[in-house]
Amino acid sequence: MQPELIVFFVLGTVAVGSAIGMLLSRNAVYSALFLILNFATVAVFYLVLGAPFIAMVQVTVYAGAIMVLFLFVIMLLGAEHLERRTGADWQKPIAALLGVVLLVEAGYVLLSESVSLPGINVPAADYGAPVAIGELLFSEYLLPFEVTSVLLLAAMVGAIVITRRDAPRRKKR
Amino acid sequence: MPIISSTDLLAILPTAFVVVWACTLLLVDVFAGAGGKRLTPWLAALGLLAALVLSVRGGGLEQTAFNGMLEVDGFSHAINALVLGSGLLAVLLSVDYLRQHGIAKGEYYVMLLFSISGVMLMGAAADLIVVFLSIELLSIPLYILAAFAQPDPKSEEAGLKYFLLGAFAGAFLLYGVALVYGATASTRLSEITAAVAAGLENPIFLLLGAALILIGFGFKVAAAPFHMWTPDVYEGAPTPVTAFMAVGAKVGGFAALLRVFIVAFPSLGADLAPVLIGVVAATLIIGNVAAIAQNNIKRLLAYSSISHAGFILMAFVPYADDAVYRDTLAAALFYLLAFAVTSFGSWAVVMALEKAEGKGLELQDYAGLFRRHPGLAVAMFVFMLSFIGVPPTLGFAGKFYLFRAVLEGGYVGLAVLGVLTSLVSAYYYLRVVVVMFMQDGKPQAQASPLLNLATAVTAVGTVALFFFSQPLLDWAAGAFLRLF
User: Fold this and answer.
1) What is the pLDDT of residue A87?
2) pLDDT of residue A173
3) B304 plus B437 within the same structural domain
4) Of B216, B248, B264, which marks where a domain is finished?
5) Cross-chain Cβ contact A151/B111 below 8 Å
6) Are residues B316 and B300 located together in one domain of the fold?
7) In chain A, pLDDT over 90 holds for what percent of residues?
8) Residue ranges of the domains in chain A?
């Protein structure tokens, strides 16, 4: 067996396993931790595929920033434990049915029609490297980059403004 | 290769000026004392005025900037002038209202300026990425402004509703952009045109993408069936915010809609026509019929603004017709101007009668207005006439040019529908007039000098500009897009 294939299957097992773990665990904190593991595994996938930049973004943004925020929110709200009855029980059989339909459909397409996809052109070795992305970002895509920064500033100021509690008292007239 | 050239800077100068001014204002407001904070609105107005001067002075500039991300031309200059003028009116309306309602914070004007810079970018955006970012730059400050009167539950509801539905619509837009990129391998409008001309492998993706982008814009301009948020948000948001939202978001939405579709998707004109006709018909009918049932003046004006989006979209239907699209552009720009002037005026009158805690907004509160405050009543009368489209008001000229563009495009049925729904609209606009002039009541208006000034300027403008319709239309017609 090729080493790449072994890596793929190990990673795939971890990714699917952590995704299932996230869905099944009753404690929201465990779910979030499973999701972090899942994100990290996907990041390794990106590395294997030769996209180091996306891998780093996956780790820092998704597994890092966003999931930390998730954990904060879960703990602040004290919503660690899920109610056993969620009030959405009627959805379960429908979801299972739809899942089976999807599986059958995918299986049918894969097995009945001998799918042969054309090989993709292997990109250059430094394609998608951090240096190349940085150069593009600060030359061709300079304007969107700057607009994004203004956008983030506006969102940040706005979030502070509408959550600040020392707002001046409303005058009664 | 230089990252940024002086021509790039020149092209974006008015927009960049507004952004920098907003950031400066933010700092000034933090460090200013109580006395200094009173100056914030005037500093904001000064900045808008300076940007307007910059934009008009550079009015002859026509060029592509930032590697084709921006297209500065007559159209973008016209949009700049429109939105900066609207911003000035919005500041004028806001100063006293915010003070009276105890929500006078400097960040209000910072948010307003950010939103305006977003509209200015939308007028010049020639790349779908920039279109998306600028639409967000327009919207996010508006979400905040809609919720600015927190902890007033109505304002919070308005902000949250606008934010959730806006984010939803943004997702549609983004998905559309992704599909168009998938079909043409570019987000640059000019390169999309070139790719389409060279032939596509999957034209269906282009059509799907364009349709999803249309949904995104339809939400921004409040066209049916993407209008559900409008009455609630317009009603709940602080009134000066509503006044700016009604005009600013429409100007931005239509600016991007016109440029993106006319430049990038002329090949889809025949495919999209039935969809557009459906949207126009739904918007005109829902906007005008639902307005009849409203007793709250803010909701009435909200439905009225939906119907006006329908009128502008009507001229947009034949956008792919080479012989018509210039008239479409000119008529749409002209109507946006007419709508801006009339709409700001009517909101100014609403504000004059509005009391704390959402009182004074029912139609019945306008009874006897003519006896007590003849000036306000006459001004409102003028605005209502302009909304209906009765000469001699701007609204008449605007509708006339729109109908002309529709007829040139050969959509007689749409023009007939437009006239019929205009007749329907006369009912609810004139109802306001009847209540003001014929019924007895004791309305209490407390118009500040600034509000009176805004009302007078817009009322006079609505009538006086009518007599300059032709030069104005020529100005709008001069705002051609550069196509290539």
Assistant:
1) 66
2) 40
3) yes
4) B264
5) no
6) yes
7) 35
8) 1-82, 126-164
Contacts with B71 from chain A: Cβ below 8 Å? none
Q: Which of A150, A161, A168 sits opposite B107 (nearest CB)?
A: A161
* Predicted ipTM of the assembly: 0.90
> Which residues fall within 8 angstroms of residue B34, CB to CB, at 6 or more apart?
none
Contact call for B148 and A162, based on CB within 8 A: yes
Do B232 and B359 reside in the same domain of the chain?
A: no
Do residues B231 and B275 share a domain?
A: no
Are B257 and B269 in a shared domain?
Answer: no
Instruction: Summarize the confidence of residues B157-186 as an average pLDDT.
Output: 94
Quote the minimal CA–CA distance from A13 to chain B in Å.
Answer: 30
B292 and B369 share one domain: yes
- CATH topology for A1-82? Four Helix Bundle (Hemerythrin (Met), subunit A) (1.20.120)
* B304-354 pLDDT per residue, tens: 999 999 999 998 999 888 888 888 889 999 999 999 999 999 999 999 988
Whether residue B371 is found in the same domain as residue B253:
no
3-state secondary structure of B144: helix
Contact of A149 with chain B, judged by CB distance below 8 Å, is answered with: no
Q: Do residue B236 and residue B382 come from a single domain?
A: no
Q: Which of B210, B235, B264 is the last residue of a domain?
A: B264
Rounded Cα distance between A157 and B25, Å, is 12
Average pLDDT over residues B346-375: 88
**Mean pLDDT throughout A136-153?**
92
Radius of gyration of chain A (CA): 23
Rounded distance between C-alpha atoms, residue B16 and residue B128, angstroms: 20
A172 close contact with B: CB closer than 8 A:
yes
Which residues 6+ apart lie within 8 Å of B213 measured at CB?
B128, B172, B173, B176, B177, B180, B260
Q: Classify the phi-psi angles of B61: left when phi > 0, otherwise alpha if psi is within -120 to 50, otherwise beta.
A: beta
Q: How many domains does chain B have?
A: 2
A148 CB within 8 Å of a chain B CB: yes
CB contact under 8 A, B67 and A140: yes
B110 Cβ contact partners less than 8 Å away, ≥ 6 residues apart:
A157, B22, B25, B26, B29, B44
This prediction has a pTM of 0.89
Of how many residues is chain B composed? 484
Assess if residue B198 is contained within a domain: no
Instruction: Describe the crossing of helices B269-292 and B412-438 by its angle, rounded to 10 degrees.
Output: 20
Please give the residue range of the domain that contains residue B345. 265-484
Q: How far apart are CA B452 and CA A149, in angstroms?
A: 39
Q: Which residue has the higher pLDDT, B345 or B2?
A: B345
Pair of tokens at residue B39: 């100056």
Give the model's pLDDT for residue B484.
Answer: 45
For chain B, say whether A154 makes contact (Cβ under 8 Å): yes
Assign residue B68 a region (left: φ > 0; alpha: ψ between -120 and 50; beta: otherwise): left
CA proximity to B381, closest of B284, B279, B458: B458
Pairing of strands B63-65, B70-72: antiparallel
CA B205 from centre of chain: 30
